[in-house]
Structures are given as structure tokens and as C-alpha cells.
Amino acid sequence: MEILGLLADGFLVALQPTNLLLIIVGVTLGLFIGAMPGLGSVNGVAILLPITFLVPPASAIIFLAAIYYGAMYGGAISSITLGIPGASTAVATTFDGRPLALNGRASLALVTAAIASFVGGTVSIILFTAFAPPLASVALSFGPPEIFALMLLAFATFVGLGGDDIPKTIFSICIGLVFAAVGFDEISGAPRLVFFDISGFLHGVNFLVLAIGVYGIGEMFWTIDSTRGKIETLNPKMTFSGILADSKEGMKQGWMGTTIGSFLGFFVGILPAAGATPGSLMSYGVTKLVSKRSKEFGKGHPGGVAAPEAANNSASTGSMLPMLTLGIPGSPTTAILLGGMVIWGLTPGPRLFTDQSEFVWGLIGSFYVSNFFALVINLSFIPLFIWMLRMPFTIMAPVIFILSVVGGYAATRDMHDVWLMLAFGFGAYFLRKLDYPLAPAVLAIVLGPIAEPTLRQSLLFSSGDPSIFFTRPIAGPITVIAIILILLPLVKVILDRVRGVKAPADA
User: Fold this and answer.
1) In whole angstroms, what is the distance from residue 162 CA to residue 377 CA?
2) % helix / strand / coil in the chain, to the nearest 5?
3) Angle CA(222)–CA(305)–CA(34) in degrees, nearest 5?
């Protein structure tokens, strides 16, 4: 009951006229910041941080948190309508969101993304409100072996993303891991895989640059080639009754993905150095793995939109938890928020909940309010997003190209990455022509920078003994489950071949 009383006080703070106005403005700005390729919540919060010094600290962080929420919603917009991920957190949304849009079901994809985001955000806020201190201690119990085991589990869930062709899937994963290793070695500090001694590779391959190249430039080339110049303009229908029907259908087909994404995303989000991007990718992989219609994923299934969207919104709240309770940022965006809190004279940590109770519960109350307004504003703008799809492809293609170039440059402000993005676009086009799956490579470059250092740190800690991944109480079960999931597709291939050999013999 005490928590309910504190939460009620938090709602009173969040619903003050100034704070409510900041929430609405912040969510709206975040929605369009998230939809712009290359910007995302990190750049949006960083750019608008100086404005917050004009208002009290509580109002300032409420405003920035609203931008964060809006950006999580907005990332799906360009992923679905243009095939360009607005941010790294929305890459998995592209896998099924873009095919739905190309099939004339953009409204279904956008409505499903909005509702799943709302559900994921709501579930995570409730978990945050009820279990903040114990969940923070759980996050602290995750050392390098546990995080590597979790990354191994993520790899296991997307081994099946390439279909039944396991060798091509493994090849795609290996390409992603190679690109993830480019740059300075985190442990030794030595440069590696700096191709042709080009200095631009020293800062590594930015994930967003690869994602925009693969799903922006590469998709544009594929569309031009597959249609042989005879590209029909999409003319999706948009009515109020249609939105209601899409809401019903989206939840009917996406409830499993929404549920998995809401809980898994929050859990991954509270882990330091993980964040919303791995959470959304893992949720997509797990949902596809357990779905009875897994073969429809990647071709336009609402569950493939619901899972990552619920996860990235849930993870965004989860990443706030270690920041407030432990002073450890759970994502790049919360690192900027942490810096802002220090500037405002607030000290994150366990005592923040007692020393600054009004501030903390006002922020938690604003999470609920921001989540509600993000849903309303997002649904209100869906007709505008649908209108974008009615543009002829002769106009759409240059828009996609310009946005991709701007997004590739905005990620690092380095022309090297623009050329690299174009190279990734051509490479993705040729790999697709040769029927190689692209999703495993993209996912590998996300998880590689987390998996490799945690693997090496774990082995250094155990003097090279790999049993550390099996003997620790949390890492052990996760590792065993991951190995079983990795072996399942291989077992299936072997059984299919055995049955294929026996069938002609019996005939």
C-alpha cells in the first residue's frame, strides 16, 4: 500500500501543467527523432540536454525520459514505411514490418508496433515500480560468464533465422562477427582487422551504418532489380474502422511476441552494457523459435513486429533501473541521463529513493503518462506515415538514398562511414541474390562486441577453464539451454536426411 501511495504522489507531480506539457512535447519530438535514420534517442537526448537547465531537475528528467519513450516508438516508423531502421533498436522491426508494408498492410504493422510498444512499456513500468531494489541486485549478480551465456543463448535463438540452410546461416553469422571485431581490441588495446590500413576502420564498424546500408541501400537495389523497373505505387487504405480491425488482428497474431518482448526486454534492459538493441533482437529470435507459424516470420508476420517493439520499449524502462538504484547506466541514453542528474546535483544510488523521494516517484509517474501519450500521438500520426507510402517509387528511391546517406553520416560524422554504408548496401544486395540470409549477420555484429570481451574476461578469470560457464548457478542453466537450441536445427537436418534415405529404400 505504501508503494501505491508514493505512486499516487508521483502522478500528481507528473500531471502538473508544466510537466504534462513537457511530456507531450518530449514524446512528440522523440517520435520524429526516432523516425529519422541516424538520430535515435541517444542523439536526441544529448542535443536537447542543454534546454533542460531552464526548468527544475524533476521536470528536466521527465522531459528527457519522454523523449526517450517517444524515440523508442518512432524507430519503427521508418523501419516499416521506408525499410530504413530509425535506430539500432528498430532493426528487428524491419524484418517483418517492411514486408507487411510492401504487401499493403502498413497500417497493420504500424498499429501492431504502437500497441506492442504500449504493452511492453506498461509491463516494464509495473515491474519497475514493484521490484526496483531486488531487480537491481539481480542485475549486479550478472558477471562476464552470465552475460556471455546470455549472448550465446541469443545466438542460439537466431541460428534458425536463416531457414533450413544451416551452412549459409553460419557463414552469415561469421561475417557479422568479423565486422564486429574491426577496430581496437577492448582488452589489449591493439588495432585489428584494419583493412588496407584505412584509418576509418580504427573506430570499428558502427552497427547503425551497417543496418542502414543493408536495409536502406540494399533494399532499394533489390526492389529495383526484382521489379525490373515496373514498380507499382503502394496505395494502402486508411480508415478508423480499419485501425480498429488492425488493432484486433495485430494483438491476435502478436500477443505471444508482445508477451515475450515485454518480459525478456525488461530483463535484458536492466543488465549493464546490454540495452534495448540486444533485447529486441533476442525477443524476435525467441518468438520465432516458439511460434507455430515460424516460417511466416521474415515475410510479414505481425508477431515479428510486436516482439521487438514490445522489447525495446520494455528495455528502455529496464535500463533506467540500474541508473537510478545503482548509478550504473544500462544503455548509452541512460548514460547521458545519468550525466544530467549529476549536473543537476542529484546523486543516483540506493539512497536516491529515500533522499529524493518526490523526484523518483514523480519520474516513475511520468513513465506511465509518457507511455499513454506516446500511444495516442503515435496512432494519431499513422495517417501521415501511411501517406508516405503513396509516393511513387521514383520519388521514394531518392528519398531513401538521401536519408540513408544522412543517417550514415549522422551516426559518426565521418565520410568513411558513408562509403562503408554504400559498400554494405551493394554487399547485401549480392548476398541476397545468392540466397544468403542477412538477419544473422546483422544480429552477430550487435552481439559480437558484447560476447567477445565477456568470453575472454571469463576465461581469464578461470585461468582458461571453460567449465566456468557450466558451474556457476546462473550461467550454467543458460549455457545448457543455448547449446540444446544450437543443436536442435542440426538434429532436425540429420533426421530429415535419414528419413529421405529410408523412404526410397522402403518404396
Assistant:
1) 36
2) 80, 0, 20
3) 80
Q: Cβ distance 128 to 121 under 8 Å?
A: no
Q: Are 322 and 329 in contact (CB under 8 A)?
A: yes
DSSP 414: -
DSSP 326: H
Q: Whole-prediction pTM value?
A: 0.80
Q: Which three cell numbers stand for residue 317?
A: 524502462
Q: What is the pLDDT of residues 213-266, one digit of tens each?
A: 887 788 778 777 766 555 554 555 555 566 677 777 778 888 898 999 999 888
Interval 160-199: pLDDT, tens? 554 556 778 788 888 888 888 888 887 778 888 888 888 8
What are 408's three cell numbers? 550514415
DSSP string for residues in 82-146 = TS--SSGGGHHHHHHHHHHHHTT-HHHHHHHHHHHHHHHHHHHHHHHHHHHHHHHHHHHT--HHH
Give the integer Cα–Cα distance in Å for 376 and 379: 5
Do residues 47 and 89 lie in contact, with contact meaning Cβ atoms separated by under 8 Å? no
